[in-house]
Amino acid sequence: MKLKKLFVSALAVVMTLATVFSLAGCNEGGIEVPTVPIEMPEEAATGGAAVHDPSVYYDISSATYYAFGSHYAVASSEDLINWQQEVAEPNWSALYGSESVTVNGVTWPKALERTVDLVRPDSSVNTTWAPDVEKIGDKYYMYYSLTGGFGSNSSAIGRVESDNILGPYSNNTIIVESVTSSDSRKPNAIDPELFYDKDGTLWMVYGSFFGGIYIKELDSNGLPVEDGFGKLLWMGDGQGVEGPFIFYDEATDYYYLMVSDGSLSSDYCMRVARSENPDGPYVDITGSDMSLYNNGGNKLAGNYNIANIGNNVALGHNSVVERRGEFYVVCHVRNAINGGHHLETRKLYFNKEGWPVMGPLRYAGEGLGTATVEEAAGAYDIVVHTPDVSDTIVGSVACMLNMDGTISGALSGTWSMESDYFVTMEINGISYSGVVCGGWRTGEFAGGVYCITATSSDGNAIWAVGR
To answer: Which of 358, 392, 412 is the last residue in one of the domains?
Structure first.
């Protein structure tokens, strides 16, 4: 099931399924198990495009992925590896044309005038937030959001349209707004993301901080089926969850809701929960319902430093792309707290229990595959992520995964493999379930290396990167 509804020929569907099933079998839980060795990348990913809060749309007509972000930035890629800047922030005229309107001393695209007049943003925010593009019929629709001020929940989600993916966009419509509501628990109506469920129904998930994450059903024209805010999926908390993204995996038959928790400049971390239904309830690995529980969700990544590679900070506000049965996370990353950001793609895998785990290294073309114990054993740099929201940059520690199943070095424990793919590690009495994968390591040990990515029984991530 595509994350963005793609209408392709029957021949293309048959060819895709043939490729998937030639590469993979399934375990008892329906998880695809590769039957070919890991194909290592041959070189590092390149391209330093800057897109904050990226939402990715695959444009069939140009066979290109486009990442749309806050501050009007856009980047493109044909392979999810190398990203090129299409529109640099804050060049809104590239998307909306040159006509403008001024409100509270800030100049806005005239195409957004109705929403700007409703929200009346103050001078602290002169941007649309986290736009999402979807093609419905023969039109491209951009769903965008405005807020009254940084940290304000006086906000609105609008929609504009164009005949071309890069605009110009016009014909503004308001989809949902929290400006006129007096409800103390009203959601922050920003960060819209659309998806189709397995039955073809269109939904919009949205929200940030305050009232939490909500979902609304849309009709076939991309407009709300009902008035109101919709249904609460993930409770807001003191740290603030935002940037929701829902995707469906046919192999596990689960919908996965990803959010970012914390400050977008310092301690952002990606979290995930899952449900059998598109509109929830979504639970994490502990069984906690995210609509009822603060500080939940399996943590996929936080701030870290892998030896001789460098800092990676505030990974978050991601999209998930499915391509030929494999999944990829596209997110923004900083190399320092409160520093600049750039766009990256990471491979997303599923452990044998059907929980997503994320590749430790930037995607460089590595293929889904297997490795024997003999191949996987060796020297690794291991990162045990902090379980909470923290601006601590966790450094890696040097360890050995030994042929006898022990782990030695800075950490001690055991490890084992199943089907030359699934990996179980036990360190300090904590069990982690994950997979073996490949990646391109930069720095002193540059080259293709084996990696392990896993999650604990309480939903915390551990990464091991070969050296």
So the answer is: 358
Maximum Cα–Cα distance for the chain, whole Å? 69
Burial class (CB in 10 A: 0-12, 13-18, 19+), 221: exposed
Residue 299 has pLDDT above 90, yes or no: yes
**pLDDT tens digit string along 49-108?**
999 999 999 999 999 999 999 999 999 999 999 999 999 999 999 999 999 999 999 999
434: domain range? Answer: 373-466
- Compute the C-alpha angle 90/203/182, nearest 5°: 75
Look at residue 16 and tell me whether its pLDDT is greater than 50: no
- 395 in the same domain as 354: no
Single-letter code of the amino acid located at 460: N
In a domain, 227, yes or no: yes
pLDDT at 18 over 50: no
Domain co-membership, 434 together with 349: no
CATH code of the domain covering residue 22: 2.115.10.20
Does any domain span residue 1?
Answer: no
Q: Are strands 193-196 and 202-207 parallel, antiparallel or unpaired?
A: antiparallel
Residues that are catalytic:
53, 242
CB burial of residue 256 (10 Å; 0-12, 13-18, 19+): buried
